[in-house]
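In keeping with the milestone schedule agreed at the kick-off meeting, the structural modelling team has produced records for the first pair of proteins. Each record is given below as a sequence line and a structure-token line. The laboratory manager (R.T.) confirmed that both were archived under the project's standard naming scheme.
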Amino acid sequence: MGVEKKQSEQLRLQISSLPSSPGVYQYFDLEEKIIYVGKAKNLKKRVASYFNKEKTTSGKLRVLVAKIARIEFMVVDTEMDALLLENNLIKKYQPRYNILLKDDKTFPWICVKNENFPRVFSTRTFVNDGSDYFGPYASSKMMTTVLDLIRQLYPIRNCKLNLNTQNIAAGKFKVCLDYHLGKCLGPCVSEQSESDYLENIQEIKNILKGDIVSLLANLKKRMMTYADALEYEKAQIVKEKIDVLTLYRSKSMVVNPKISNVDVFSFVPEKEGAFVNFLKIIGGAIVQTHTIELKKRLEESDVQLLELAIAELYSRFGSGAKEIILPFKLDFPFPNVRLTIPRKGDKKNLLDLSTRNARFYQLERQKRKDLVDPNRHSNRILKQLQSDLRLNELPEIIECFDNSNFQGDYPVAAMVQFKNAKPNKNAYRHFNIKTVVGPDDFRSMEEIIYRRYKRLIEEQQSLPQLIVVDGGKGQLSAAVRSLEVLHLRGKISIIGIAKKLEEIYFPDDSFPLYINKKSESLKLIQQLRDEAHRFGITHHRNQREKGTIKTELTQIKGIGPQTAELLLRKFGSVAKLKSIDKELISKEIGMAKAKIVVDYFEKKA
């Protein structure tokens, strides 16, 4: 206890000495491991807020604070610097309590290699050798289209030869098939100068950056220069490039071409995190897109998640955008950048397009997870249910019971079975109550529970891990009595669910459990209950129809099964109906049919 008190005093001293400046703070545990990194506009206020017990309501946050043994901080010049530094430290140390940033590393890029006579090719691997990487591309098809465009416009080499000045001068190389096909101009044998080759590479980089507008302008000037010099063949080659680029640009256009040098960030929240999509727009065309997934570790807000995503994407791709389009306001400003939250128009269309990309990525991730583990979703729900109900084993098989009757007549019951959180309709069962007379839900429940599990024991079939009874303490106690008779008490978990407040009751516990209304486990229990009710009602209706057909009422000419059922539901029995005034009967079935019924009974009297 003394150690903890001393540690707490040391932390208070550290906090009191923190500056009121923007910066980044790091929390260390007793093992000197970084467990959390955060940014702040005001370091002193932000760090002190963690130790305010009245404001620290989150359980995860309390666990984090309890593990803090030491604090370090770094002051920076601007809030934007704090945001970027926070992101770099999170990626470097991957602290346990920070947002987890997930990324699909398999997206392809186009690499312009840092070498003599640079090659241009696709890759999925970064190498820190000074090469330029463009992308990532959301699909290989999109990337291939761009590469095909480049190779159509520019004859560049594909070989991996070391084309340094000494090797070329020494005549070490011979031209290949690409040279004879016109796909390469032979820099390996000095047929193309390095300056001419690099001029092509610069134009390729402009295409990959999306700066097609300025490239087209330069090509048009070059074409006119060749034409003025009467070099018509060269002018024609340039014109063909202009035509190809113009067609490519027209297909890439997404909105008003005046929208240029703009970054778009959309945000799609999930229960435990979010997906953020990034679009770069130049000249009205999308030149870059990428989506990342973020997982919460504490109770981070949507603003915090989006800020971290922007910092990560900026540090990865770099950006000179003068405007950022966002779905909501951020806490941290971006210097010399206009932040726009559009409500309508072309910019809103861009934000919507980015959102659709994020949702598509979210769906694809889910599909991939389901392919790897088809039962992942149901297993997660069952584990949550096991935790919420404090069950000893995973409830892979759950059976739910519901009973009903009509004015004490035609008592029936239904049982539905869910296997791995999904309906197993082959195992559904109907029950006609045999030993109970009159409307007694408790004894009816006792009967069907006994009959169901006595049969399973006799047939040596597997038992469920959980039984759900539609009803409160009374129905639950009745079901438990049958389990005791069958010596199954304690071998099968059993609960009751009351409809009014969705209370969960346990045997021998007078206080109900209230599960979060948004919880997947409560939704599963409700689905079981509703399915049992639906299945039972169908059987009950069939039994009533069979029963009412045999009543005296359906023997009256002009009175069908539905009218007979309506009268019995309202007045209870044929005997009572005989004493009811014609006016009251007419309110239920109309004067004409009421007269038929009354006349029938008067003739029989």
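The second protein of the pair:
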Amino acid sequence: MTQIAFAGVGVDFGATKLFSDVSCTVGSGERWGIVGRNGTGKTTLFRLLTGDLEPTRGSITRAPGLRVSLLEQHRDYGAATTVWEAAAGELGELLALEQSLVEQAANLAHDSSPAALARYGEDLERFEREGGYAVTARIDAVLHGLEFDPAQARVTPLAALSGGELGRLGLARQLMSTADVLLLDEPTNHLDLETTQWLEQYLAASERTVLLVSHDRAFLSATVDHVLHLEGGTATPYAAGYTDFVAQRAERRLAQQRAFEQQQRTIAHEKDYIARNIAGQNTKQAKGRRKRLERLPRLSPVIGAAGTMALRFEVADRGGDQVVTAKNVTVGIGERTLVERFSGTLKRTDVVGLIGRNGSGKSTLLRALLGEHPIHAGELKLGLSISTGYYRQDLSQVPLDRTLYEAIEDLRPKWERGPIQGHLGRFGFSGQEVLRRADSLSGGERARLAFAILTLSRANLLILDEPTNHLDVESIEALEDAIEEYDGTVILVSHDRELLRALTTRTWILHERHMTEFAGGFAEWEEVSTERAHAAAVAAAEEQALRRVHEHQRVAPAPKRDPRAELRRAQRELEEAEAAVAGLESEVARVVAALEDPALYTRPDGTREAHALGAKLETLKRDLEAGIERWTRATEQVERSGQSDPQAV
């Protein structure tokens, strides 16, 4: 069923034509990737879908009653005060009912009157009918998947969250909405590798329609089944996933280029004929050809590299072969240890991928390497003649109080106007743009200026902390090419798996305060450590199942000890079932922890041991599922026994 239809849509801003002739249809359950260079109109397209902007030309048709949800940059959480309330969003009424049930269940211990029991029974029936148990467990699962502690989220105030955490919370709130269509604008920007993979699985299991703007090529490949490509002032729809889109786009461009070149040859031939015959005996034919040539619709050349960064990293000094040496290094913030007893080396021309969860200490370790953060113990030093260039995740290296021209002039005071403008032009800034203040730039523009500054360092060690966050796909490809051609050493922190797969020669994995060195690139690491993803998936599924049982117990009145045999038997069965699940849960946690430990996969027999543990985990999973089912039945039996005998409450 068609939910959204674009017909000849165009948008102008004053005299500037952003795009035109956009036509496509979005069907129920489809997942569209919106791709294109920065500034081609991806965000504008979302504003059209929400109704915040009307098209200058054409029309947009929506199915009657269609609800669309957009993750806004400036979020309004309404009356929510805690992280959990903010994530719940429009489900607040159902959650208020849940809290009322919890309070009623506690009050039944001293007020078991028929009226109190009747009200509790009616509210509980409504809670079950509207899916309350499943909803609260789902909110917990989404929060957990996006790196929040669900229990802590119930008491954590919104004001306590960082910018990155607010970004993840906004995504959680949107995923919990009841909208028919989700519009996701760069949803992976604040996510680490594990969380991005969780989001992929979540969207794959969802039946809702999704339109997403993303620069993460691996995420797009795993998520979308249609692509809308904005380029050259219009948009082309592809009924294909991202990988097939890339191949089809290449074929389309090749055909377009051949047609353009053929037309250019035809035009040149006609012009030559006209020039030779316009004043001769064939003047009539020449004039006729000239009229036909004037009416000929001109084909456009293939969109080239204009607008992307012309990025190149040069090295002023080769530097030594030993670039970084770490011996028993411990790094922390205050009393909290982030990296413990790390020993390792980095050699010239290595490209090491540094991976780990958000908040694990990756950026702090990089700052310690540069001498910007003290180490608690050990020795961490750069080799001889090593100079560093640092791309900071927060782009704080960009001087916001300076114009683009002044930012480059400060670093190259001997350069005249021409070289400065030429340098900025290679990063997409031309004409009067160079006189803009840096604080007026968008995220993507600020990132390009940061690279313009970085290339001037001519360092032989580049430290790149999440360099792709604000770049479009074409700029990321330019960055990938520049790193590949670079004759120095690179430490790369990124959640862009395609970039890590293409470039890294070694991998450092930061997990539970310990750094594991893997003597291979990220692609090899993914291959040998597949059981880690299996373990994470099992743990997430079982946690969600356990949450449903706990939710039953939260809203149920706890019956007092009663001499009646039926209630005693139900309570005994509940205790036994709960104990059995606790034991299995502990064993699952032990196996999951073993599989998630990166050190396992660096041992000679690590792969074989991981497969054995994976098989054991599957057995434990089946046993735990059966145990949870038994626990659920026992919980419901105790509830029924307690409610059937008011004196037992």
